[in-house]
Amino acid sequence: MGWWRRKQCEEDLDRELRSDLELEAAEREESGLLPEEARYAAKRALGNAGLLKEEVREMWGWAWLDRFRQDVAYAARAFARTPGFTTVVILTLALGIGATTAMFSVVDAVLLHPLPFRNPDRLVVIWETLVRSPNDPPFFDTYHDFEVWKSGSQSFERLTPATWKTDSQILTGAGPARDVFAMPVGIDFFPMLGVAPELGRTFKPDDLHEGCTVILKHSFWIEMLGGQKNVIGRHIELNENACTVVGVMPPGFAFYPDAAAMWMLITPDSAIARDPNAKVGVFALLKPGVSVERAQKEVEALYRNAPRNDPFGAQVKPAIYPLAQQFAYLTGPTLRLSVMVLFGAVSLVLLIGCLNIANLLLGKSVARQKELAVRAALGSGRARLARQLLTEALLLSATGAALGVLLAMGAVHYFQTLNPIEMPPSNPVTVNLPVLCFTASLAVVTALLFGLIPALKASRVDLMDALRVSAQVASVSLAARTLRRALVIAEVALSLALLAGAGLLIESVGRLASVPLGFRTDRVITMSITLPRWAYSTDNQRARFYRAALDRIALHPDVVSAAFASFVPPHGRLGGHALAVDGWPEPSPTTAAFDVGQVSISPGYFRVMGVPLELGRMFEDSDGEKSRAVAIVNEALARKYFPRENPVGKRIKVGRPWADRRWLTIVGVVANEKDQDFFHQMSWEETPAVFRPVNQDPPSRVSLVFRTVTDSTSPASMIQKQIATLDNNVPTGDVQTMNERLSRTLAYPHLRAIVLATFAGLALVLAAIGLYAVLSQLIAQRTQEFGVRMALGAETSDLLKLVIREGMVLTLAGVAAGLIIAVSLTGLLSSLLYGVKPTDPSTLGGVSLLLVLVTLLATYIPALRASRVDPMVALRYE
Amino acid sequence: MSSMGKKVERVELLQGTLDMLILRTLLFGPFHGHQIGKHIQRTTDDLLQVQHGSLYPALHRLERKGWVASKWEAAPDRNREFKYYRLTAAGRKRLLKEESKWKQMARAVAQIMWPAEEG
Q: A488 φ, ψ to 5°?
């Protein structure tokens, strides 16, 4: 009921009572009283008008609102009297609730919020996994698999292939040639997602016979085509094909991978559809009511019964995953775990904050005992007192939550502008309505958490005791003191657990970053170069271009040395190929390890990267197309495949199937360069690798690696221009220093460690404040005792020791409990660690020491104050 | 806590009786607060003095429960408005219920207090 309604009722009641009063007075007057007397008599008959109104209001059912308003006003006055305390509490809550809200907005975006498609809960992706190790990262299906499932399955409403395992497309005719990612998708892709285009239409069956059709991503349309409305029906040149633009998607639409600039329809003429082994992901919309398990069974059966000539196929089985989970996994395999760990951590920080505030409030309620006793004596019921204290708690937490939301918005904004890690496409991290609801409930929960204990205690206040004793010596019951000690111990323990987690993550990042990688990282710059397929279809054409490009680049005054490589560490050269050695039995698809990486390099590559030659020789310019096919292998390959022999001079074949491959003669062995597998971010791999001369195996896409005089990318633009003058249809891009590449590799571990360390630091400060508060109060209560002790000859140092001992007992109890918690929790982190065990004694010892040092500081200040007690002053206290 | 509980019980008992008396009075037609009080007092030969402190809260409570309805109306004999309460259909039902409950109660009490006079 609204405020105006209430006001009306009040006026109504006034009027009613007035008229009664007048009637009464009139009657009395009639019975012979003077007007004046009659009015007084009537008033007496009416009784206490205030009380009467109060009772009538009670009947209206608004009384609780009044009392609440009174409580709030009272609480606000109380807080205004203790601004220091109030500030500390509100700041603690703002930080705690703000950090938790910010983290929750990430949890919401990554784990909770449904994907912005029509039936997000029914969207799945079908991958393939190895039968012998189903928990390894899954991989692509083949187009053939898709066709089998499409024609044979009953579980799906829609089924579509889509892939990012494909050659990039070269966009020409719109400014300089550009490498764009046009993601090939099936005709059911957009109907499956159920998202309408902003302009034009999505694919329709006629398009299957119309050559190349594309639908643009909104950002590509704006940035590359100027957002022109008449784009629909126009052609863009991709790999010298005219592709018709049929639609533009709305701004929020995104699918994995985020880099896709457009979606290109797979037609029966597409290279993908003509190659049964083409690698595609199969995305599907389950029919309503069909479970993932049922679909899984059906797809598995179809896969088993499908005819196949590839013996490798028996090693594999399909596996269905919910799409939302895969989006997060593909973006960052450790993202979900990281988010959950960090959210757990921030909840602990908030819990510590609440314990701390409960502790401070308890301390305050001791000082307030007298005030509360007076109120109780004046007739406030126990329930009313408890409610008063809870209202105070609620007021504090609501203010803290309001500030916290501002903090969270700032943090989320900062996160988005900084963009330190890749986030899953589609759901941006925002402080949205569900997040705000979460924060509001958080405010209530925290208020209960830190307000309930003091409220319960206060409602049991002993009137006589509290009123008799002066506030200074107000008997703090043993139970209250024990409770506060327990709270401090809990705070210390939880802080230690957080510190241990942060310590382990920091240690891991440190170790991960300091591993010698086997290649030079300073003043090394990389750049991608893509040769258009239509103009460079033969090995000879490509090799010739690379030679010419290298000649020009070498002339640049700032370039010390330069080379090409099909893959540059730390990404992308892991495994996938089988190795056959001349004279050994051919490995079969079931026995081969598929653990060998293959890289094409120009002769100068190892010099640029600073990788030493261990045996044999480097490639030379004379290793040309017509000369003997040669290879250099790395130490890891030599160790694994030639453990007791000199590999130089041996002949090998790489790949699958290998029957039609040339024999390669090993001419040299180089040291290992370390690599990182996308799916195992917390590790460095030394992948067995075969290097081939770029002249003998020229890929259509390479990375240029060059060393410069300074660690700046400035020569890159000149080099890009030079390559454009060689052929302006050859796009270049993706310029990065090696250090940037490495920091991107470490982005997840880094961010995780920083965020957890921040939380742990916050927890540490809170625990120190808690300890400080308890000790300060202890000293305030024992001032008299200390005075007596001093008068009886105790030394300053004795008192100092006494207080420090009290502080250290609490700390050490907390540390002991914290170590137990830490050891039982850090196991959750094991997949996020590198080079340390979850129970690493030096890390646990280190953080314990840190904690003890900080709490010692928090102990020392009150201890010093205790030791300066003037016996005369202390004894005169009463 | 326990003392509070008892107090609430006592208030409610009184209120229940007063409620019934108010509802019964309104059976004669709409009255304003002052008239209701006076009517109860006069009918019982001043035995029952209805305090304003209980009458008005009771009236507002009955209105909230929907047993009576109120309206500011001009008095027939005077040139001014009073807040008249009238019985609603729900109030009528309530009155019947209260009445039978009260009769049962009175009979039960009588059976204990004056056993000889029975039958």
A: -65, -40
User: How close is the nearest chain A Cα to the Cα of B42, in Å?
Assistant: 14
Q: Do B60 and A52 touch (CB under 8 A)?
A: no
pLDDT average, residue stretch A253-273: 90
**Per-residue pLDDT, B8:** 34
Q: What is the pLDDT of residue A846?
A: 94
Integer Cα distance of A580 and A631 in angstroms: 13
**Which residues on chain B are in Cβ contact (under 8 Å) with A60?**
60, 64
Residue A761, both tokens: 């630091």
- Tell me the C-alpha distance between A571 and A675, whole Å: 6
ipTM above 0.90, yes or no: no
CA distance B85 to B62: 10
CA dihedral A348, A349, A354, A358 (to 10 degrees): 100
Give the containing element (helix H, strand E) for B55.
Answer: helix B52-65
User: Nearest by CB to B53, which of A12, A20, A52?
Assistant: A52
pTM of the model: 0.77
pLDDT computed for residue A5 by the predictor: 72
Could you give the CA distance from residue A127 to residue A131 in angstroms, rounded to a whole number? Answer: 12
Q: How many CB pairs under 8 A join A and B?
A: 48
**Shortest Cα distance, chain B CAs vs residue A493, angstroms:** 38
To the nearest whole Å, the CA of B33 is away from the closest chain A CA by 7
Structural domain boundaries of chain A?
3-61, 120-331, 335-514+747-875, 536-726
Between CA A666 and CA A637 the distance in angstroms is 11
Structural domains of chain B ordered from first start? 2-113 (1.10.10.10)
Chain mean pLDDT for chain A:
86
